[in-house]
């Protein structure tokens, strides 16, 4: 193992090409055959495959891959607004902009690059952005794929403005599941959540785990750093580890809402579940020169794994 790590060249494992709209996309690979694709449209991860080549993220068959429309699936970046909780377009503008590759990013800790293939992207506001959200910022995103196939997104937002600003944020992560009725989430039990279906009214989670039999659109508050999504039929568990992201969004549109979305198939709600590391209830405020970091790591383990096998408050950070 030591030898392969010594000769592993992350640049050689990073391929830049054009998608069918002529927009640059980056494909990351690891030595075992896992891969991740990142589009410069939105800085959005559009694919994450395991060593067997199986897709782990959901993308709608009706997704529109053409700016300025955000892509329905993968991991859109919601910034500087989540949902419709402010004056901007739904989920903010970052997911609709063309990002650039950041050739000289400020250093991250060695752990965030060692043995990984990764790409650094950068978003700065355009004149048009400044008209609707008048704050100068630098948003740096690193997407990395580790030797074990785990996918990490690290966002760093810096205030280069002369005055403070606040924002909300989410990694709007569309997980591909076998059957939504057979999926459960562990790690959010007993927590308070805001229910977007009930005008953001606050409730307390009563179940031992979250299961699905109708539309769910919630923001769970003060969440642990590790959450697990168990897919019984595929016998696998998605483990979401996060930091700097106190909230977790859980969303499935179910049947009625699915039929109202033009870029979403009528029955596709059965194969997807959004579970997002987020900062929503208390927006992040940055003074001039300050920087915020939000990190989310996704991994997949066999489903014999359950919450007793991991410490909800730690692991990996």
TrEMBL record:
The UniProt entry, under InterPro entries, shows: Aldose_1/G6P_1-epimerase, G6P_1-epimerase, Gal_mutarotase_sf_dom, GH-type_carb-bd
**Per the record's keyword annotation, is Isomerase included, yes or no?**
yes
Task: Provide the top EC class.
Answer: isomerase
Q: What is its EC number?
A: 5.1.3.15
Name the UniProt key words of this record, in alphabetical order.
Answer: Isomerase
Q: Name one GO biological process term.
A: carbohydrate metabolic process
Which Gene3D superfamilies did the record assign?
Answer: 2.70.98.10
- GO molecular-function terms, A-Z: carbohydrate binding; glucose-6-phosphate 1-epimerase activity
* Catalysed reactions, as listed in the record: alpha-D-glucose 6-phosphate = beta-D-glucose 6-phosphate
Residues reported to bind substrate: 72, 90, 95
Please give the PANTHER family that the UniProt record associates with this protein. APOSPORY-ASSOCIATED PROTEIN C-RELATED, GLUCOSE-6-PHOSPHATE 1-EPIMERASE
The record's comment on protein family reads: Belongs to the glucose-6-phosphate 1-epimerase family.
This chain belongs to the protein called glucose-6-phosphate 1-epimerase
């Amino acid at each position: 193992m030591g030898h392969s790590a010594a000769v592993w060249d992350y640049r050689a494992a990073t391929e830049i090409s054009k998608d069918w709209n002529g927009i640059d996309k980056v494909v990351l690979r690891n030595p075992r055959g896992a891969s991740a694709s990142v589009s410069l449209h939105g800085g959005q991860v559009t694919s994450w495959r395991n060593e067997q080549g199986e897709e782990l993220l959901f993308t709608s068959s009706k997704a529109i891959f053409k700016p300025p429309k955000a892509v329905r699936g993968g991991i859109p970046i919601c910034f500087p607004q989540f949902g419709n909780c402010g004056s901007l377009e739904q989920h903010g503008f970052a997911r609709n902009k063309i990002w650039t590759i950041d050739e000289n990013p400020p250093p991250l800790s060695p752990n965030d690059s060692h043995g990984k293939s990764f790409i650094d992207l950068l978003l700065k506001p355009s004149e048009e952005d400044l008209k609707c959200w008048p704050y100068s910022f630098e948003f740096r995103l690193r997407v990395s794929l580790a030797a074990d196939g785990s996918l990490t997104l690290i966002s760093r937002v810096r205030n280069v403005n002369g005055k403070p600003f606040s924002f909300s944020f989410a990694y709007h992560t569309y997980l591909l599941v076998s059957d939504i009725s057979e999926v459960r989430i562990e790690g959010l039990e007993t927590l308070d959540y805001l229910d977007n279906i009930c005008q953001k009214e606050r409730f307390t989670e009563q179940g031992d785990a979250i299961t699905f039999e109708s539309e769910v659109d919630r923001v769970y508050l003060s969440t642990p750093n590790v959450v697990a999504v168990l897919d019984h039929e595929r016998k696998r568990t998605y483990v979401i580890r996060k930091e700097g992201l106190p909230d977790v969004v859980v969303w499935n549109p179910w049947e009625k809402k699915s039929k109202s979305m033009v870029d979403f198939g009528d029955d596709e709600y059965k194969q997807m579940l959004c579970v997002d590391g987020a900062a929503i209830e208390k927006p992040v405020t940055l003074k001039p020169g300050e920087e915020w970091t939000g990190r989310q790591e996704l991994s997949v383990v066999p489903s014999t794994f359950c919450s007793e096998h991991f410490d909800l408050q730690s692991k990996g950070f």
